[in-house]
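Most newcomers find our protein records easier to grasp once they have seen one. There is nothing in a record beyond a sequence line and a structure line. Getting from the letters to the tokens is the skill we practise here. An example says more than a description, so a record of this kind follows:
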Amino acid sequence: MPPAITAYKNHDRHLLAVDCIIFGFDGKELKALLIKRALEPAVGQWSLMGGFVQQNESVDAAATRILNQLTGLQDIYMEQLHCFGNVERDAAARVVSIAYFALIKIDDYNEALMNEHHAKWFSLNKIPALVFDHRQMIKLSRERLQEKVTSHPIGFELLPYKFTLQQLQALYEAVYNTRFDKRNFTKKILALDLLHKLDEKEKESSRKGAFLFVFDKKKYEQLNKEGLKFL
């Protein structure tokens, strides 16, 4: 056996897991998708969706697999967040977890899978007691999301393809947990010239209706090379 491999045998082995913080937006509130834990310890308690990294897959591949198992969706926006490795974070074993946050459209979520995993959407302002360090994961991922949306238009992953300016403002207010002046927000967002106004209106929220917009991703990619600050 090569010396390097022999040296590996002298070190402890740990379990490697991934945990996924899944955000959705219902038009008013930013929400996190939680499940009822099916395993001991803490069976039946609220938890993030997670699992162990298999022998022949990368950490990213494990996160993609777990997200697909819970949501049934492909091509989800996903970003690695942080490594959580407190020695006593899991009472059952020494488990190191790589956390990811993901953004999905709530209406795209498969309701059958939601029932299968006993999953439920919770407002970020009303998160229940969670297992292990999962509350810390959600807190850190929200902070990362707030940082990210200032320079990248990832918030559009949470909106329908066609949206109103009111819906867009409501999303950013939910992300930052604050209120924006409507006139200033509209002026600033339109000045970026990254939204394409449609000849369609959304009429469910008012009799007059509000014009719908779509995000111009190609134009954003061009401007991003020039150091665009999105918001």
